[in-house]
Automatic annotation (TrEMBL):
This is Endo-1,4-beta-xylanase. It catalyses: Endohydrolysis of (1->4)-beta-D-xylosidic linkages in xylans. The keyword Signal applies. The active site is at residues 110, 203. It comes from Neoarthrinium moseri. It holds the Pfam family Glyco_hydro_11. Its EC number is 3.2.1.8.
Length: 258
């Protein structure tokens, strides 16, 4: 969903001046290398959104107007197996996703490891197919896939699958070991290709909100976890939105499909 992207390099090389003998070549030039992240921002042109890159892995997104679609964030290019640490705030009003988000080519795949979302669980659609579940980094994730037909991609308009891991207890902050998801997807028959970019992304869909995300910075304290919207077939043990997770996830939901 994000064809427009730019390199953001926060690496600085100190270039000294060398007075004196002309034959002196720079050696052992002191280098101050700050964390360097890839940054991507895509907007469908309808969203009213302000995306700002801060220092190192930080970025801020403010959006309003309840219309349009955007995806932005910071990470790596290429992506791959990493212990992705992040922290911050994510306060959508309406629907949005906070995810480790990326693409592969050959085959072309758009993927999401969803840590939190606003009002819409992306598995709540008849087009989505369940591929089981997995645990990683202290949480459980559902695996889903869906085809996208003639949609924007890093290779222009194309038809390609989306793979999703959706954390059953939403959180904002922690570690996402991406390799665990890639392996679970592969084991479920969901084939990835060559890694393109991979970012900790905020995506807004017809919504408003604010987010400040720090990629590379794990949370210092404990992170609240909120169960996703109660699946239709499970018991009352998972209480409503805003409740603290006190139980493990109760098996596999039959989602609302409307
Ligand atoms: C986002 O909104 C908050 C609250 O209104 C404001 O303090 C902040 O400066 C805004 N940041 C950007 C990047 O627009
Ligand atoms: C995330 O934090 C862990 C623990 O400090 C560290 O080992 C790991 O390298 C970090 N991940 C990245 C991608 O920097
Ligand atoms: C999903 O997780 C539940 C609860 O841990 C487990 O009972 C179930 O077997 C899992 N399903 C799959 C397909 O792995």
């Amino acid at each position: 969903m994000a064809p427009l992207h730019v390199w953001l390099s926060a690496a600085f090389a100190f270039c000294g001046t060398f007075a004196g003998a002309a034959s002196v070549q720079p050696q052992n030039v002191p280098k101050s290398v700050a964390a360097s992240y890839y940054s991507s921002f895509w907007n469908d042109g309808k969203a009213t959104v302000k995306y700002s890159n801060g220092a190192n892995g930080q970025y801020t997104v403010n959006w309003s107007g309840d219309k349009g679609n955007f995806v932005g964030g910071k990470g790596w290019n290429p992506g791959g197996n990493k212990a992705v640490n992040y922290s911050g705030t994510f306060e959508p009003d309406g629907n949005a996703y906070l995810a480790v988000y990326g693409w592969t080519t050959n085959p072309l795949v758009e993927y999401y490891i969803i840590e939190s979302f606003g009002t819409h669980n992306p598995s709540d659609t008849p087009e989505a197919t369940s591929k089981g579940n997995m645990t990683s980094d202290g949480g459980e994730y559902e695996i889903w896939t869906k085809m996208r037909k003639n949609k924007p991609s890093i290779q222009g308009t194309a038809t390609f699958p989306q793979f999703w891991s959706i954390r059953t207890a939403k959180r904002v902050g922690g570690t996402v070991t991406t390799g665990n998801h890639f392996k679970a997807w592969t084991d479920a028959g969901l084939k990835l290709g060559t890694h393109n970019y991979m970012i900790v992304a905020v995506e807004g869909q017809d919504s408003s909100g604010t987010a400040v995300i720090n990629v590379g910075v794990a949370p210092t304290g404990s992170v609240a976890e909120t169960p996703t919207a109660a699946p239709t077939t499970t018991s009352t043990e998972l209480s409503g939105a805003g409740a603290t997770l006190t139980s493990t996830y109760l098996g596999y939901p039959t989602r609302n499909t409307t």
